[in-house]
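Dear support,

I submitted the protein below through the web form. The confirmation email said the job was done, but the results page showed an empty box. After a refresh the structure appeared. I'm attaching both so you can tell me whether what I see now is the final result or a partial one.
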Amino acid sequence: MKMVGALKQISRIPNLKIPVETMEVINDSLSMFIDYFSNNPNRRHKLKPLFGNINSGQILKLFENFDTKDIFDGIDMKKSKLKVSNGYYSSAIAELDPAIRSKLSTFIASQFGKRFDPSKLFNDKINSVAYELDEKGDVISCCLIDGERLYTTSAVNSEKIVNLVSNLCKNNYNIWSTISITSTLLINLCPKAGLHVVEDSDLIEKILVSNYPGYKDKIVAETKRGHTVFSKKDSGDTPQVLVMS
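What the results page shows now:
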């Protein structure tokens, strides 16, 4: 159970500094860890908190050279939905009411206008949504979410964006997102919403590769407009900043 506690912290805190001696103990104990949960399947629910977190990919990497004996089978690898409070709603996409989904789609398209990219609306990366309705039942703010990553955020005004993201940050352990360096307004709103720009290029790489292994050895980090930005080699995408709570 001490191992479970240690791995949970590693999965939640990507900038956690772990002494070499501690990592040696963890690595030397992995076989015993696997045997324990293999022989005690009724205890496997204790493994759930290791996953769905910002750095859970690092946990899986620790086990990549081991036969895990199916101890992780049936465990969701990312959050099915995030927690909200104070009049906000949260739903896994699979459980989302079709009428609400239609309202959200129309609202997001209207907010982006000519910049709207329909391929990013409820695509296969999105697994949950958080949103706010007014007294008439109309959408006034929403986030499409991939695990703990805010994928698309829309609202009737900046205050509503800040309030929704702030609520998500307060009710969940770690929230993160990426923002185009050209989106100055959104970047400037981040501190009010409880997000900070990650300036450490090594940490940026760790978070991105942990969540999207395809980024391994393909991240280009540089400084633009006073921030550390990243892009993927040969992608042609606009450089992004990474923000996290």
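Response: this is the final, complete result; the empty box was a page-load delay. Residues 78-172 form one domain.
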